[in-house]
Prior knowledge:
Outer membrane protein beta-barrel domain-containing protein, OMP/PagP_B-barrel, mainly beta, Porin
Amino acid sequence: MKNFILGIIMLTLTESAYAQRLMDNRAVKTQSSIGHWVIGVETDNLVILKKVRDIGDEDYQRRLMPTVGYFVTRNLILGVGIPLGLAPRTGTYYSSGTVGQAGVYPTSISPKQIGVAPFIQQFIGQGKVKPFIGASYRYTYQQLDFSIRDISVYLKQTGNESELSVFTGLTYLISPKIGIDVKLRYGWQSGNHPYVSFPNLMESGYTSNFAYTSQTLAANIGLRLIIGKKG
């Protein structure tokens, strides 16, 4: 009788473990499987941990990036992001120019940017917490609008930035379809930031480019949604 009861208990535990493993496998398959699409949004340079070289105006470093990707294998995503940036601000210009223009004037500065960023991302392991590694390339178009309306100064300049980067991080799956990302990215940048200069007392303001190369380590967060399935 004792052996019979122990047998029933062992059978029950075995069936329970099998059922749990089956549910886990189904969950993992739902989380990352060939044919799924992934849409998301992430910060870009939310916290800059280290700059090997100064790359000028930080308004051009922080962006928001919607992404879309596709699972080409169980744990490998090919995708593309669209870096977007808009950081308008106001300031004050102290003019010591001609008699008619000398004084203190409010300014308006509006950096804008948009780009494209293809990437590859490899998940490692299974479960709710999934480490990943990856690499990306991005090209960003930049435009700077500067104005001092009181003295009719309106300037515009364009620039660009290219970056090759590698990244690593973790995705925490709060459900089989929704995940939160934490990412560290190290990038090598080169480009031309637009900026504004007033070279003399006659207020002959003009815009120009600041050419640079740099390296940046940054921390970011993001949110992803896994949708669809290959039929």
